[in-house]
Amino acid sequence: MGATIKISIVITNPDSLNHLWDYRNKHIDAISKLNYILVHQLMSYLNASKEIIIQKTWGYKNQTTGLYSGMAGDLQTGVANLGGTPLFFTTDRIDIIDYIAATTPTYMKFIFKAPPLTYVTNVFTLPFAASVWHYCFVMVAVVVIFVYLVVLWEWKEVKFRKTISGKRGDTLRPNIFDVIMMEIGAITQQGSDVEPQSIAGRIIFIFTLTTLMFLYTSYSANIVALLQSTTDSIKTLDDLLHSRIKLGVEDIVYAHYYFENAVDPTRRAIYEQKVAPKGQKPSFMKAEEGIRRVQEGFFAFHIELNTGYKIISDVFQEGEKCGLKEIEYVNLIEPWLATEKKSPYKEVMKIGMRKIHETGIQNREIRRVYTRKPQCHTRGSNFGSVGLIDCYSAFLIFGIGIGLGVLLFVLEFIAKEYFLRKIHTEN
Fold first, then answer.
1. What residues contact 20, with CB distance under 8 A and at least 6 apart?
2. What's the rounded Cα separation, in Å, for the pair 41 and 101?
3. For the segment 169-192, what is each residue's pLDDT rounded down to a tens digit?
4. Closest to 101 measured CA to CA, from 89, 109, 90, 115
5. How far apart are CA 194 and CA 177, in angstroms?
6. Which pLDDT does position 171 carry in this prediction?
7. Which of 308, 319, 329 is nearest to 373 (CA)?
8. CB contact at 8 A, 100 and 83
9. For the chain, what is the mean pLDDT?
10. Percent of the chain whose pLDDT exceeds 70
């Protein structure tokens, strides 16, 4: 009969008060805007008037007084009859409010782009199976032995010795290190400045080059695909904790509460080690900044999914929408609308919200306000440049080679000086 129902709603952005009906900036305070419309429908069904009370927070318990702040506090003290913005189920809230209906498919998760395969493994060993690598090493060892035996036989031939003595500088000597260097030149497709001179030696050398050419072609074709591949190795919070991905959290009231009060060891470690390390500024930031850093890569951002999806749809290129991954941090069911404890309106409100759900009004408003996960339509055309981390192993080999070269140079220099001094002393 037109009775006034006092409704407490949560608004985190003051500008949202200007867009509760017009579906603009839907990703900002989406849960409040959606439920404001649903509550309006409920009041129409009940033939009631509404009085809106604005709060900045859902409400959390003061351990000293036992009273709640925000919207939960309004319901606890009787200032409001209905909470117009849904709340998550928590054990402590059950004692002060009654939940009546689930209205919003709201979830909070870490969103990140699946990291490249090079981020977790050395892709330069992946093109071949372990058995192929083993057979390659065996083949190279067999070739080295046979070439060495052929060259040794060549140098023992008297006629051949007379032919090459002092005249053929491109002849391979019977030295195991020279034979190995010849094989390394063949493996790296660089060739060799010396080679066997006999027919048997040349046959071995030609077939070695041919075999390695096919292996090289297969390896190169596979490595290109692997450098563009992503990994699914990060699937749990524990994986996220021990990965090198940096973390950020949307700067919103409930995110602070759930991260700062985490009890589970893994969740607590994520907060203390990656979100708010001691002595550093906590990684709470605006949604736009967090999604931008996700776009740049190697960053996971904790955000309400509707907000994250809306920004991703607006700023990501089509190819960048592929490979998005999600990991849940706050393990809670969907938020529910709530009334004050033992409210006389509780049952009739539950029936009204059920009718709104059954008639499709709730589903229509969810589709209009909430943004679905962006679909990947151009996975085949997605191409990323190879970065330093992708070439880490190659540069590591280069560094090791330079280090060994310098070390051998120093050892040779020391040995030379030692023998020169020894000769000088003896003379």
1. 32, 33, 36, 37
2. 14
3. 456 777 788 888 888 888 887 777
4. 89
5. 13
6. 66
7. 308
8. no
9. 86
10. 94
